[in-house]
Amino acid sequence: MYSSVIEEIKSRLDIVEVISQYIKLQKSGANYKAPCPFHSEKKGSFFVSTTKQIWHCFGCQKGGDIFGFVKEIEGVEFGDALRILANRAGVELKKQTPEAAQLKTERERLYEACELAAKFYEKQLESSKAGLEAKHYLLSRGLSEQSIKEWRVGYAPDSWHGLGNFLTSGGYQNGEIEKAGLGIRSETGSVHDRFRGRIMFPIFDLNSQVVGFGGRIMKVKSPDEAKYINTPGTLLYDKSRILYGLDKARVEIKKKNACILVEGYTDVIMSVQSGVANVVSSSGTALTLFQLKILKRYTDNLILGYDMDLAGDTANKRGIDLAVNEGFGVRVVRPPYEGKDPADVIQENPDEWKKAVENTKSIMEYYFENALSGNDSSTPEGKKNIMKLLLPSIKKLDNQVEQSYWLKILAHELDAREEDMRQELKKVKDAQVNTDIGQTAVKNIQKTKTQLLEERLLVLILKYANNIETVETGSLVLFSPCALQIISFLKAGSNGPGGELPGDAKEYYDILCLRAEIETVGEKDAASEINFLLKEAEKMRLKAELETISKKLKKAEHEKDISAAESLINDYNSLSKSIYKLEHGDTA
If one looks up domain 242-441 in CATH, what number appears? Predict the structure, then answer.
């Protein structure tokens, strides 16, 4: 079943369109390229072939088809990738047998549990007495009926087992309810509802599937009770990777080439309701590298829509440093009403929020404003504090011209010499922005000289096919079986691999073709390089034989086999002369 469904999905979906939903692709000849989303880089090693419908990163060596990309980018198994792409392609997956249905993946079961929980909470908001009170509160805060429905806001009844009983009646086990983050296991072993007496905001992944919840308290029972609680880390929900509202905002973020970051769920909903839709929330946590990598797919510009204490808010400051380090342009929007969240501003006057979003300040302007307003720049103590706050941020700027600009501004504000500022800047330790957490490093792929030579030779032959006749496979015995299959196939005069190459060789061939398409060397230089590579391959073959003979010679000498040793010495000398001729072009 799978093979026919896979082919149907591939026939309906273009790989460029699929990948463009996740990252920004730029046209590069007949292909598209981008910085790889799977390892940290600023130049584009990630290529997508429109003709072969494949992708490959020449930095971390990951690659494949649309299914491989969705598996990698979404962090899911093949079955989940199939379901995601089938939905996008409008392909209906055939119904499974009852036996197969029981074998649903754990992820699928948790997705279904979260979806049913969202429906349960929605129903409670509309039909229960406490839920209607919660809805009245939401409406009083400025949320419209349409927004409540669109964002699927609900209510968790103030009951220990309301949701749990609903889910268990639908066939879900207590263990599954716990794994979905919807229940908490007590010391006695029973599972009770995690969310009780709270307004519920479903949290969606990029495919608009419910993966978790944020619950806002309605009635305070004790001073220690948290205003908001979120789903804990689960198989589906990782707060370091999720951005609330991104599934709805990403198109607008691309369109505006900017993403506005706010703190709360209602800030996002109210902003979208006011007409400013390129907005997401990190749900009260500082920005992580995972979140920045996801946002980088859609824009290089971030606009911060929340207050930040430059001196004390180290978590948010670190997140901003990470953003700058990842190449984002960072600006700040200051709500016009001091001390109020965007949701409060929008409730009073939506136009004020729109104006604030249009009149942002750069992050350095914001830092300067905060540092100068909180310290007396005319006193030695104030000057010292201002420098302590601002110099590390200036140090982190990787553009020397930009650094000089802000040093000049700082010197002016402190009535100091610019040269003195530069001396103080040198005393600041290099900014160590920890990008290890959540970063996917480039695989440590150590290719042998033979592998590098093999790939280079095949790329040039595929680029300029007329050179295939100069290739003698006898010299290429050290090449991989896939490479030898491709060379034999090309020498046979075929126009393309079709179904004649086996799977591994076909996959290797496609990657090499993609590399050949982006190769820039000219035909004349390519012919010369191919000739050089063939000589190198022959030298490597001869040296491998020489090493084998050397081992045999040691064995013959150890066993005192004089006849064998003499024959091996002759072979050794003959091979040495052949290698010398290849290296120097003359006889020994």
Answer: 3.40.1360.10
Task: Please say whether the beta carbons of 152 and 118 come within 8 A.
Answer: yes
**Domain map of the chain by residue range?**
2-101, 106-230, 242-441, 449-584
pLDDT in tens, 42-88: 778 899 998 889 999 988 888 999 999 998 887 777 888 888 898 88
Helix 129-140 and helix 106-127: axis angle, to 10°? 80
The 3-state DSSP composition of the chain as helix, strand, coil percent (nearest 5) reads 55, 10, 35
DSSP alpha helix (H) spans, 304-399? 314-325, 342-348, 350-358, 363-373, 380-395
pLDDT at 27 over 50: yes
How far, in Å, CA of 465 to CA of 527, rounded? 10
Judging by beta carbons within 10 Å of its beta carbon (0-12, 13-18, 19+), is residue 453 exposed, middle or buried?
buried
Tell whether pTM > 0.90.
no
Bridge partners of 304, per DSSP, are: 261, 332
**pLDDT tier at 314, thresholds 50, 70, 90:** low
Convert the pLDDT of each residue in 483-540 to its tens digit: 888 888 888 765 444 446 777 788 888 888 888 887 878 888 888 888 888 888 888 8
CB-CB neighbours of 317 under 10 Å: 18
Lowest mean pLDDT among 22-36, 66-80, 422-436, 574-588: 422-436
Cβ atoms 293, 75 nearer than 8 A? no
Residue entry with tokens 């091979």: 575
Is the distance from CB of 128 to CB of 157 less than 8 angstroms? yes
Contacts of 504 (CB under 8 A, 6+ apart): 482
Homologous superfamily in CATH for domain 106-230: DNA primase, catalytic core, N-terminal domain (3.90.980.10)
Residues 464-499: pLDDT tens digits? 888 887 887 777 878 888 888 888 888 876 544 444
Strands 191-193 and 183-185: antiparallel
What is the residue-averaged pLDDT of the chain? 85
CA distance readout (Å), 58 to 107, 297, 479, 518: 31, 19, 20, 11
CA distance 65 to 78: 12
CB atoms within 10 A of CB 240: 15
> Which CATH fold topology does 2-101 show?
DNA Primase; Chain A (3.90.580)
Helix (H) or strand (E) holding 486: helix 481-491
Sheet containing 279-281: order of strands: 279-281, 259-262, 301-304, 329-332, 361-362
Helices (H), 374-468: 380-395, 400-413, 418-427, 449-463
